[in-house]
Amino acid sequence: MRVCYLQFNYRIDSRAMPSLPYWRLSGFYFFYFAFIGAFSPYWSLYLQSLSFSALQIGVLMSLLLVARIFSPAVWGWLADHTGKRARVVQVAAVSGFLSFCGFFAGESFAWIFFVMLLMSFFWSASLPLREALTLSHLENATDK
């Protein structure tokens, strides 16, 4: 049996690489996935406590996935055409938070549907945009 070892030698020239906003990038990832971890398991239980049927809960939960189809394309187009990627990510994240606050304003199915669709539209775009921003910061540090 033959064993093959691969060795990766990465040398990063710190002078050629712009300052990497490490804490802003890692903070975004932390809070994004902390929200997903707190929201996903308990949201359907909250909807059940509002006496929604299984069909209504399924429709509301599917909005998160439906928004992931369209939202990144819309926000990506906006980021590319304005050239202000970081600002678009900030607007998407803050708008997602503000739309989440709409859940406190009502409990009807139509209201929750509207707020969930709005929140999903903003929230689903922030991760792909942030990943593109992270990769653009790391372009000089990757092995080509």
Layout of helices and strands:
Blueprint: H1 22-49, H2 54-82, H3 85-100, H4 109-137
Could you explain the architecture of this structure?
- The protein has helices spanning 22-49, 54-82, 85-100, 109-137.
- With 144 residues, the chain is mostly helical.
- The chain has one domain (22-137).
- α2 (54-82) runs parallel beside α4 (109-137).
In short:
This protein has 144 residues and is mainly α.
Number of domains: 1
Average pLDDT, rounded to a whole number, is 80
Output the structural class: mainly alpha
Please state roughly what percent of the residues sit in beta strands, choosing from under 5%, 5-15%, 15-25%, 25-35%, 35-45% or over 45%.
under 5%
Radius of gyration: 20 Å
**Major beta sheet, specifics?**
none
Oligomeric status of the shown chains?
A: single chain
Query: Which range best describes the helical content: under 10%, 10-25%, 25-40%, 40-55%, 55-70% or over 70%?
Result: over 70%
Distance between the termini: 31 Å
Q: Helix tally?
A: 4
Spell the H/E element sequence. HHHH
Low-confidence stretches: 3-17
How many strands in all?
0
Structural shape: elongated
Provide the descriptors you would attach to this structure in a database record.
71% helix; elongated; 4 helices; mainly alpha; 144 residues
